Amino acid sequence: MTLKTLIAASLLAFNLAHAAEPLPMSVAVQGNPLGASPACGTGAADPASAAPDTLVRALYEIVSGPAGGRKDWDRMTTLFAPGAIVTPTTHRGEQFLAVPQSQSQFAALNDRLLGQRGFYEREVAQQIASFGHVAHVWSTYETRDRPDGPVRVRGVNAVQLLNDGKRWCILSITWDAELPAHPIPAALDRPGR
């Protein structure tokens, strides 16, 4: 029996044995093959982590700011699950590039690419689909060089969230920018556009 098969069988047995009873928030490691640590981490919860919509909007606050301004990357860490992935993307001619990375790698990339110019990103539409402890947010955005400047880029963030019983946190985020070849669909765009 492979390790993968053993883990799957253990999870199935665990779920069947406990299907009728609610699980306590802190389960002993030997009784829970997934471990006992809260999925969203053990640090203090940011108030934005109370709901998916506020959690996603907090990201826009963090990445936005004036040229040379310091971004609150420590706050961003509290909004993500340990091991969460950020996948920056870009279009270069006919190529679409995506590079999954850690939050700290993303912060360094963001500082390098956007640190010396103003960057303001705001949400213009949001759709949330949730089930139990998981949610997916489609968050349509616009970016500008200054808060009242012209729109530079529009696109859609795809955000996967988890609620560990105490708070929501981000498992992964990626995005794609709008191009003439693939405009933002009406279902994800802001009303009245």
Class by helix and strand content?
alpha+beta
CATH class of the largest domain: Alpha Beta
Instruction: Please count the helical segments.
Output: 4
Global geometry:
globular
Strand count: 7
Q: Look up the CATH topology of the largest domain.
A: Nuclear Transport Factor 2, Chain: A
Order of helices and strands: HHHEEEHEEEE
- Fraction in helix: 10-25%
Cα(first) to Cα(last) distance is 56 Å
- Per CATH, which architecture of the largest domain? Roll
Number of domains: 2
The largest sheet, given as strand count, sense and whether it forms a barrel, is: 5 strands, mixed
Rg computed from alpha carbons, rounded to a whole number of angstroms: 19 Å
Mean pLDDT: 84
Give a written overview of the molecule.
With 193 residues, the protein is α+β, with helices and mostly antiparallel strands. The protein folds into 2 domains: 1-36, no CATH class; 47-188, Roll (Nuclear Transport Factor 2, Chain: A). The protein is built from 4 helices and 7 strands. The chain has helices at residues 3-17, 52-63, 73-79, 103-114; strands at 80-87, 89-92, 95-98, 120-131, 134-144, 153-163, 168-177. Strands 1-7-6-5-4 form a 5-stranded mixed sheet. Strand 6 and strand 7 (168-177) form a beta hairpin. Helix 2 (52-63) packs antiparallel against helix 3 (73-79). The longest helix has 15 residues, at 3-17.
Walk me through the topology:
Elements: H1 3-17, H2 52-63, H3 73-79, E1 80-87, E2 89-92, E3 95-98, H4 103-114, E4 120-131, E5 134-144, E6 153-163, E7 168-177
Parallel strand pairs: 1-7
Antiparallel strand pairs: 2-3, 4-5, 5-6, 6-7
Helix pairs in contact: 2-3
